[in-house]
Specification:
The chain has about 110 residues and is an all-alpha fold. The protein has 8 helices and no strands.
Length: about 110
């Protein structure tokens, strides 16, 4: 009953609709591929939301999991230095800057730059 009310509530976030549809269609014992097709999502998404509903109930469908924060941005001065080096001649007898040469010259790691 609560799931049907969520579908009918126009003030709900749009992301809740396919999640609720997955649960309702799964209750009809439809194959995962059919549920995915009708809900407009992938099969892994169907499995994810079935598991979340089984473990946390309706509240699990309505609340997103927290995520780890992303990487910190490079300081503006570092980005400006990279841009300035890009416009200059590369060191040695090479014709252009490579990513590895650039990060070595600036003093950052390849993982931070990519």
């Amino acid at each position: 009953m609560r799931l049907a009310a969520i579908l009918g509530d126009r003030n709900r976030p749009l992301k809740h609709v396919p999640r609720v549809k997955i649960v309702l269609l799964s209750a009809e014992r439809l194959p995962v591929l059919e549920v995915a097709h009708r809900a407009g999502v992938s099969r892994p998404a169907v499995w994810r939301w079935q598991m979340r509903y089984a473990g946390q109930g309706v509240e699990g469908l309505l609340r997103d999991k927290t995520r780890k924060p992303g990487r910190a941005r490079l300081p503006t001065a570092t980005v400006a230095r990279v841009l300035a080096l890009t416009c200059s001649e590369p060191p040695g007898a090479v014709t252009h800057w490579t990513g590895r040469a650039m990060v070595k010259a600036v003093g950052i790691s390849v993982e931070v730059w990519t």
